[in-house]
Amino acid sequence: MHSYRLALPALLLGSPSRQTRVDLFDKQSRCTGSATIDERTGRIDTYDVKSLRTGHGQVDPRTGKVDFFEVHGNRTGSGTITPSGGSIQARR
Fold first, then answer.
1. CA 20 to 30 Å from 90, out of 6, 18, 28, 78?
2. What is the pTM of this model?
3. What's the pLDDT tens digit per position in 22-74?
4. Which of 69, 66, 81, 32 is nearest to 52 (CA)?
């Protein structure tokens, strides 16, 4: 099990569709890939360091909970968005 930290600007799910790209880091602060976040729909697409798509996630706008899935649909973990800190703490 790996723990990932995702740093991103404040997430505004009610705004017009806008995608934000952010870098993913492990506990040792090494870049492990990136993610794009559709702020209107709450969809998160994850990519490895070679920009190959590795999965996706969905943010619940009421609770900030994120569920992560592999490309083939297997659930891989969950996390939580903390709007005040602008980050996602995810356990995979």
1. 18
2. 0.65
3. 887 778 888 888 888 887 888 999 999 999 999 999 888 788 788 889 988 89
4. 32
The size of the chain, in residues, is: 92
* Cβ neighbours for 53, distance < 8 A, ≥ 6 positions apart: 45, 46, 47, 71
pLDDT at residue number 65: 85
Place of tokens 């703490």: 89
Which range marks the domain in which residue 32 is found?
Answer: 3-91
As for how many domains the chain has, the answer is 1
Is 78 in contact with 69 (CB distance < 8 Å)? Answer: no
* Cα separation values, 34 from 14, 15, 16, Å: 23, 22, 22
Cα(first)–Cα(last) distance of the chain, in Å? Answer: 6
